[in-house]
Amino acid sequence: MRGKRGRPRHRPDVVLGDRGYDHDKYRRLVWDLGVKPQIARRGTEHGSGLGKQRWVVERAFAHLHWFRRLRIRWEIRDDIHEAFLSLACSIICWRRLKKLRPL
Length: 103
Known about the structure:
This protein is mostly helical.
């Protein structure tokens, strides 16, 4: 018997969160799913180290927002939006590679 199509899904080992998610309710929900929450505590000093990993994600979203078409989703169909997203990602990668090794 065949299973579901696509890649087998797996849960992450750890989930990162900022101070906005510092509540026992959210921590309990994540633990119940079998995932370890790494959520910054409110009222403590900065320096937990979570920002280093979150910065990569924030920077990626900022790069994608360079493209006006992706800033606001105008396309109704998912496949068209995903095609523009793939095109934007490939353009971003191409620009980064072009900077590393001039032609």
